[in-house]
Amino acid sequence: MGTKKVRVKPIPTPVIKLAGYKTGDRVSKKQLTDGSRIIAGRPDGFDFELAPGSMKVTAVQVYISNKPYDGVDKITGEMASAIRKANKGDMVNIDATVQMPDGKPVHAYCAITLKN
Length: 116
What we know:
Blueprint: E1 15-18, E2 26-27, E3 38-41, E4 56-64, E5 67-71, H1 77-85, E6 91-99, E7 105-114
Parallel strand pairs: 2-7
Antiparallel strand pairs: 1-3, 4-5, 4-6, 6-7
Protein backbone atom coordinates (compact mmCIF):
# COMPACT_ATOMS: atom_id res chain seq x y z
CA MET A 1 0.00 0.00 0.00
CA GLY A 2 2.96 2.30 0.44
CA THR A 3 3.71 5.00 2.94
CA LYS A 4 2.63 8.55 3.33
CA LYS A 5 4.07 11.35 5.43
CA VAL A 6 1.67 13.11 7.73
CA ARG A 7 2.17 16.28 9.68
CA VAL A 8 1.05 16.26 13.29
CA LYS A 9 0.30 19.58 14.92
CA PRO A 10 0.19 20.05 18.68
CA ILE A 11 -3.05 21.05 20.35
CA PRO A 12 -2.91 24.81 20.96
CA THR A 13 -3.00 26.30 24.45
CA PRO A 14 -6.54 25.89 25.79
CA VAL A 15 -8.95 28.73 26.52
CA ILE A 16 -9.68 29.14 30.23
CA LYS A 17 -13.25 30.01 31.16
CA LEU A 18 -14.79 30.93 34.49
CA ALA A 19 -18.52 30.21 34.71
CA GLY A 20 -18.53 30.17 30.89
CA TYR A 21 -16.80 33.56 30.52
CA LYS A 22 -13.41 34.03 28.88
CA THR A 23 -10.71 36.69 28.60
CA GLY A 24 -12.10 40.09 27.64
CA ASP A 25 -15.62 39.49 28.94
CA ARG A 26 -17.19 42.02 31.31
CA VAL A 27 -19.19 40.16 33.94
CA SER A 28 -21.31 41.12 36.93
CA LYS A 29 -20.10 39.93 40.33
CA LYS A 30 -23.29 37.95 40.83
CA GLN A 31 -22.48 35.77 37.80
CA LEU A 32 -19.19 34.65 39.38
CA THR A 33 -20.59 32.95 42.42
CA ASP A 34 -19.23 30.43 44.90
CA GLY A 35 -18.75 27.11 43.13
CA SER A 36 -18.41 28.55 39.60
CA ARG A 37 -16.24 26.19 37.58
CA ILE A 38 -12.92 27.01 35.97
CA ILE A 39 -12.60 24.93 32.81
CA ALA A 40 -10.17 24.50 29.94
CA GLY A 41 -11.67 24.32 26.46
CA ARG A 42 -10.48 24.07 22.93
CA PRO A 43 -9.56 27.38 21.32
CA ASP A 44 -11.87 29.02 18.78
CA GLY A 45 -10.92 27.97 15.29
CA PHE A 46 -9.37 24.66 16.37
CA ASP A 47 -10.59 22.22 13.74
CA PHE A 48 -10.88 19.03 15.74
CA GLU A 49 -13.17 17.83 18.50
CA LEU A 50 -11.61 16.77 21.77
CA ALA A 51 -13.07 14.25 24.16
CA PRO A 52 -14.84 15.86 27.13
CA GLY A 53 -12.43 16.14 30.03
CA SER A 54 -9.36 15.57 27.85
CA MET A 55 -7.92 18.87 29.10
CA LYS A 56 -8.08 19.05 32.87
CA VAL A 57 -7.39 22.08 35.07
CA THR A 58 -5.03 20.76 37.74
CA ALA A 59 -4.12 23.96 39.60
CA VAL A 60 -5.07 27.62 39.51
CA GLN A 61 -4.07 30.84 41.10
CA VAL A 62 -6.89 33.38 41.00
CA TYR A 63 -6.05 37.04 41.50
CA ILE A 64 -8.93 39.24 42.65
CA SER A 65 -8.05 42.93 43.04
CA ASN A 66 -4.39 41.79 42.82
CA LYS A 67 -4.66 39.44 45.83
CA PRO A 68 -3.79 35.79 45.05
CA TYR A 69 -5.95 32.79 46.00
CA ASP A 70 -4.92 29.18 45.35
CA GLY A 71 -7.45 26.68 44.08
CA VAL A 72 -8.13 23.83 41.74
CA ASP A 73 -11.07 24.18 39.37
CA LYS A 74 -13.78 26.23 41.05
CA ILE A 75 -14.38 29.47 42.90
CA THR A 76 -14.24 28.92 46.65
CA GLY A 77 -16.27 30.77 49.27
CA GLU A 78 -13.24 32.92 50.11
CA MET A 79 -12.80 33.88 46.44
CA ALA A 80 -16.53 34.61 46.04
CA SER A 81 -16.36 36.89 49.08
CA ALA A 82 -13.40 38.77 47.55
CA ILE A 83 -15.30 39.13 44.25
CA ARG A 84 -18.31 40.59 46.08
CA LYS A 85 -16.02 43.14 47.80
CA ALA A 86 -14.17 44.09 44.59
CA ASN A 87 -14.81 47.36 42.77
CA LYS A 88 -16.33 47.92 39.35
CA GLY A 89 -13.56 47.57 36.77
CA ASP A 90 -11.43 45.27 38.92
CA MET A 91 -10.08 42.18 37.24
CA VAL A 92 -10.41 38.51 38.07
CA ASN A 93 -7.21 36.97 36.67
CA ILE A 94 -6.76 33.23 36.45
CA ASP A 95 -3.40 31.58 35.93
CA ALA A 96 -4.10 27.89 35.35
CA THR A 97 -2.10 24.74 34.84
CA VAL A 98 -3.85 22.41 32.42
CA GLN A 99 -3.03 18.76 31.80
CA MET A 100 -3.23 18.19 28.05
CA PRO A 101 -4.41 14.92 26.44
CA ASP A 102 -0.77 13.82 26.02
CA GLY A 103 -0.24 14.27 29.79
CA LYS A 104 1.97 17.35 29.51
CA PRO A 105 1.10 20.41 31.61
CA VAL A 106 0.66 23.82 29.97
CA HIS A 107 -0.09 27.22 31.47
CA ALA A 108 -3.13 29.19 30.34
CA TYR A 109 -4.47 32.56 31.42
CA CYS A 110 -7.82 34.32 31.66
CA ALA A 111 -8.71 37.91 32.62
CA ILE A 112 -12.33 38.92 33.28
CA THR A 113 -13.42 42.47 34.16
CA LEU A 114 -16.10 43.06 36.82
CA LYS A 115 -18.81 45.36 35.51
CA ASN A 116 -20.63 46.09 38.79
